């Protein structure tokens, strides 16, 4: 069967997102540490901010794995599950963009890029799922 339905742009985006997320995680972690040293960062807020960053990192692994697997095997279930996990990742990214204790310009930039890639990836996932059905 030469009728290949998996999306090459989506697969490339999964790869790019995987690399970018490593940068995002390390940059956000470094900024949280920086903010805790430079600003009066309340301890009762520092721990939840760190916890949310680690939860986001833990979500990123199955999100990318299921998305990539679903795309390559042309199965809508893993791709759909990846799309659901993406919603959680978007909410967490929005938290770091808007609601964390101190939001630096660098936070705004890296979260805007992440949200843009999540949005683009989500559109491509929906298109891929529609092609598989």
Give the gist of this structure:
Pfam families: Transmemb_17. This protein is mainly alpha-helical and about 130 residues long. It is about 85% helix and about 0% strand.
Describe this structure in words.
The protein has 133 residues and is an all-alpha fold. It is built from 4 helices and no strands. It has helices spanning 8-38, 43-73, 76-99, 105-132. The mean pLDDT is 95.
Topology of helices and strands:
Blueprint: H1 8-38, H2 43-73, H3 76-99, H4 105-132
Helix pairs in contact: 1-2, 1-4, 2-3, 3-4
Q: If you average the pLDDT, what whole number results?
A: 95
Could you give the distance between the termini?
16 Å
Shape: elongated
State the order of secondary-structure elements, H for helix, E for strand. HHHH
Number of domains: 1
The level of helicity is over 70%
Q: Kindly estimate the percentage of residues that lie in beta strands according to DSSP.
A: under 5%
Q: Kindly provide the radius of gyration, computed on alpha-carbon positions and rounded to a whole number of angstroms.
A: 16 Å
- Number of extended strands: 0
* Largest pleated sheet: none
Structural class: mainly alpha
Keywords: Cell projection, Membrane, Transmembrane, Transmembrane helix
Transmembrane segments: 12-34, 46-66, 78-102, 108-132
Organism: Sagittarius serpentarius
Pfam families: Transmemb_17
Keywords:
4 helices; elongated; mainly alpha; about 130 residues
């Amino acid at each position: 069967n030469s009728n290949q339905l998996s999306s090459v742009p989506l697969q490339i985006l999964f790869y790019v997102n995987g690399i970018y997320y490593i940068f995002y995680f390390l940059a956000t972690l470094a900024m949280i540490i920086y903010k805790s040293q430079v600003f009066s960062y309340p301890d009762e807020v520092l721990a939840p901010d760190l916890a949310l960053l680690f939860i986001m990192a833990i979500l990123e692994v199955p999100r990318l794995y299921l998305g990539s697997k679903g795309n390559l095997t042309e199965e809508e279930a893993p791709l759909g599950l990846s799309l659901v996990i993406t919603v959680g990742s978007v909410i967490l990214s929005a938290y770091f963009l808007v609601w964390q204790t101190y939001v630096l310009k660098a936070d705004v930039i890296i979260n805007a890029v992440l949200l843009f890639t999540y949005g683009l990836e989500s559109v491509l996932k929906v298109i891929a799922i529609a092609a598989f059905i």
